[in-house]
């Protein structure tokens, strides 16, 4: 049983239906007008890694919504690079003179998050300062220890020790009072509460999951899948082959860190050691736990991620062969159980073999995982396409 720090769960298929039907007003009555502003500002005319800037903004919004993020966080996702940021120069609103305008559109809490997201050195903050300070083994051990600590804090004694190794390490990486980053343009200090940093982790996972393919692997020299940004190969040819990129291991590490932060925050509240800062209440910074990576509780090994991707690619790009295709896909799923597309291709292979009951179960699992992500892993087809095809397979089987 999951005993995570936030038990709020979302019926993701019900939440996904308005997106699948293109009925944006059912998601948020103001969403069509929010999107219209982006269209008028030219977001649909700007290139982005996997298509247009407008499509990327909408996709990140959808992902965050499906994960149960608060309105301010989801709206921040919709406008998250509108002032440009440390990764891209796509300012469709001027950060110095346009803040009042954006605030009037998406609301004060969301605009403040957008502004902060666009002025901090996000690469350094997310990677160098956070998850790269842990090993995979540390994260796995600390996740297990954090569950025990949370159980104790929820118990009748409310026992909790801030000196526990996992909490002490977390406090050294991201202190309870938060972090101070440097403004990417002025160099001035930017104070970030711990919850704001956690929200930016959540948004970074959504951001990478929507756009990353093998093109970025070539761009960043990410052959081993650790995503340590060792290269800057500007000669890499876009869009690449369309093969799924090796981003999931690094994002599973960020997800694990997010879970540790959320757990520690809940323990601190339960034991009366802290209260949520007033500005975080204003920003609606509830730390919901998304469903991915088994609710952010598992770390995916970089090598197994690559093996799984290559097994899938061999199966899906080759001719179907009785036995062989199924074996490749099952080995892929064994190495990386956190993506849905191998399950959906497996369902096709099982239908070809006349094993309809097994095919229906595989399709059901594939649809569940793809819907939970809110984005496709195999980006040769859209998220909507994979979900729709999976439902065809499930119902047909």
Structure description:
By secondary structure, the chain is mainly α. It has two domains: 12-128 and 174-212 and 247-296, Hypothetical protein af1432; 302-396, Alpha Horseshoe (Serine Threonine Protein Phosphatase 5, Tetratricopeptide repeat). Helices cover 58% and strands 3% of the residues. The chain is built from 20 helices and four strands. The chain has helices at residues 12-21, 24-27, 31-40, 53-66, 71-78, 99-106, 108-119, 122-128, 136-154, 165-173, 194-211, 214-220, 248-270, 278-282, 292-296, 302-317, 324-335, 341-352, 356-373, 383-396; strands at residues 47-48, 51-52, 179-182, 189-192. The strands form two sheets. A two-stranded antiparallel sheet has the order 1-2. A hairpin with a 2-residue loop joins strand 1 (47-48) and strand 2. Helix 5 (71-78) packs across helix 7 (108-119) and helix 16 (302-317) packs antiparallel against helix 17. The protein is globular and about 60 Å long. The mean pLDDT is 91.
Low-confidence stretches: none
- End-to-end distance: 31 Å
Mean model confidence by pLDDT: 91
Structural class: mainly alpha
Strand content: under 5%
Write down the overall geometry.
globular
Quaternary state of the chains: single chain
Strand arrangement, major sheet: 1-2
So, CATH architecture of the largest domain?
Orthogonal Bundle
Protein name: DUF6817 domain-containing protein
InterPro entries: DUF6817
Write the layout of secondary structure elements.
Layout: H1 12-21, H2 24-27, H3 31-40, E1 47-48, E2 51-52, H4 53-66, H5 71-78, H6 99-106, H7 108-119, H8 122-128, H9 136-154, H10 165-173, E3 179-182, E4 189-192, H11 194-211, H12 214-220, H13 248-270, H14 278-282, H15 292-296, H16 302-317, H17 324-335, H18 341-352, H19 356-373, H20 383-396
Antiparallel strand pairs: 1-2, 3-4
Helix pairs in contact: 4-5, 4-11, 5-7, 6-7, 9-13, 11-13, 16-17, 17-18, 18-19, 18-20, 19-20
């Amino acid at each position: 049983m999951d005993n995570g720090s936030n038990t709020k769960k979302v019926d993701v298929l019900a939440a996904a239906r308005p997106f699948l039907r293109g009925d944006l007003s059912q998601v948020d009555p103001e969403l069509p007008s929010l999107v219209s502003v982006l269209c008028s500002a030219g977001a649909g005319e700007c290139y982005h890694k996997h298509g247009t800037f407008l499509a990327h903004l909408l996709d990140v919004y959808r992902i965050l919504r499906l994960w149960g993020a608060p309105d301010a966080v989801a709206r921040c996702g919709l406008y998250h690079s509108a002032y440009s940021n440390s990764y891209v120069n796509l300012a469709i609103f001027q950060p110095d003179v346009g803040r009042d305008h954006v605030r009037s559109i998406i609301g004060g809490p969301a605009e403040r998050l957008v502004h902060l997201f666009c002025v901090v050195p996000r690469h350094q903050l997310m990677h160098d300062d956070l998850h790269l300070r842990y090993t995979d083994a540390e994260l796995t051990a600390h996740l297990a220890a954090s569950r025990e600590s949370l159980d104790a804090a929820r118990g009748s004694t409310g026992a909790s020790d801030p000196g526990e190794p996992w909490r002490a390490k977390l406090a050294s990486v991201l202190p309870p009072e938060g972090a101070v980053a440097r403004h990417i343009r002025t160099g001035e200090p930017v104070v970030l509460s711990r919850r704001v940093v956690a929200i930016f982790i959540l948004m970074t996972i959504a951001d990478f999951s929507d756009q990353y393919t093998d093109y970025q692997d070539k761009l960043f020299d990410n052959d081993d899948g650790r995503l340590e940004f060792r290269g800057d190969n500007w000669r890499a040819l876009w869009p690449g082959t369309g093969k799924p990129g090796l981003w999931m291991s690094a994002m599973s590490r960020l997800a694990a860190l997010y879970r540790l932060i959320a757990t520690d925050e809940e323990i601190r509240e339960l034991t009366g050691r802290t209260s949520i800062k007033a500005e975080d209440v204003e920003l609606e910074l509830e730390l919901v736990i998304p469903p991915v990576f088994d609710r952010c509780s598992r770390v995916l090994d970089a090598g197994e991620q690559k093996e799984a991707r290559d097994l899938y690619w061999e199966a899906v790009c080759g001719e179907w062969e009785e036995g062989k295709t199924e074996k490749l896909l099952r080995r892929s799923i064994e190495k990386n159980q956190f993506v849905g597309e191998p399950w959906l291709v497996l369902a096709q292979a099982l239908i070809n073999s006349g094993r309809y009951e097994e095919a229906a179960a595989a399709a059901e699992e594939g649809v569940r995982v793809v819907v939970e992500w809110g984005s496709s892993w195999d980006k040769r087809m859209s998220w909507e396409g994979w979900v729709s095809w999976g439902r065809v397979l499930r119902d047909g089987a």
